[in-house]
Amino acid sequence: MTTTLILQRMSWNSMQYDNNFSYVSAHGRGVVDLLDARPGERILDLGCGTGDLAARIAASGVTVHGIDGDPDMIRTAVDKYGDAPGTPTFAVADGHAFTVDEPFDAVFSNAALHWMRRPDEVLARVHAALAPGGRFVAEFGASGNVAALIEGLRVAGGELAPEVPIELPWYFPSTAEYATRLENAGFEVATTACFARPTALAPGDTAADWWRMFGPTVLAAFPADVHEPLLARVDDVVRDRMVGADGIWVADYVRLRFAAVRVRPARDVP
Ligand code: BEZ
Fold first, then answer.
1. Staple 182 to which of 87, 147, 187, 270, CB 3.0 to 4.6 Å?
2. In the prediction, which pLDDT does 31 show?
3. Distance 239 CA to ligand 1 centre (A)
4. Which of 41, 184, 32 shows the shortest CA–CA distance to 103?
């Protein structure tokens, strides 16, 4: 199995990701069910992170190959799941540019497509990686995702460093926009669902911790001495919207979940 090795994205702290942000894969059950992998199938996990869902899918007798743009995530996945028969294989690859040497029965993705900001390129690669009739089943952030977290940063940034432009590294489309892209890329859309999925952060974590984990490139635009006051102010701005009665902070995730089938050549390949 070959993949084009292009390093992308920031390198996350994969240990912290597994310890405090493990809800990312814990919430993947619904999209794994939608994938409905059958024994003997070959499945590509696009943006596999530290490999938990790839391993869960492989446990049902499926051959799984996980790719992720972050070498640290892939190192952790390999460390956790090894190379025993029946465990997934893993490689570093950019979702916009990967190639495979044998087509897959399905491409699966959880909480990763919003990091890939050129969706038509990704869809072209997914299409090329699938056998005719192959499935593309995924869940990711939809329009409106983490709106409170983003607004908190915009308000705090406007107050503390108004000269710094806030550029977000994510792509959160509407269902209609993404369905059109899927169709243009040669897929028939089988199901879509867009839903709010309020997501509890780890006990003790706040909006500031979420930004430290997922927004280091956004924070890097601010002078270093502004980071801590900025994050403290973000917490103040969004506390009432994000903290539940039990004191746990809840992120306002909105998901787009879909299943599509590769049915025809792409209409326009980027
Ligand atoms: C998400 O899973 O929706 C997400 C995670 C990190 C950054 C942005 C969105």
1. 187
2. 97
3. 19
4. 41
Token digits of residue 222: 């601010």
Partners of 205 in beta bridges: none
Cβ-proximal residues to 176 (8 Å cutoff; 6+ apart), any chain: none
- CA–CA dist 35, 225 (Å, integer): 46
CA of 215 to the centre of ligand 1 (A): 9
Report the pLDDT value the prediction gives residue 20, as an integer from 0 to 100: 66
Maximum Cα–Cα distance across the chain: 56
Q: Are 66 and 112 in contact (CB under 8 A)?
A: no
* Distances 111 to 123, 168, 249 between C-alpha atoms, Å: 16, 16, 20
Q: What percent of the chain has pLDDT over 90?
A: 84
**Residue count of the chain:** 270
The DSSP string of 146-192 is THHHHHHHHHHHHHH-TTS----------HHHHHHHHHHTTEEEEEE
pLDDT at 51 over 60: yes
In angstroms, the Cα distances linking 90 to 63, 97, 124, 180, 228 are: 12, 16, 21, 31, 36
Q: How many CB atoms lie within 10 A of CB 231?
A: 23
111 lines ligand 1 (CB under 6 A): yes
Q: Which domains does the chain have, with CATH numbers?
A: 3-143+170-201+252-262 (3.40.50.150)
pTM, two decimal places = 0.91
Atom of ligand 1 nearest to the CA of 114: 9
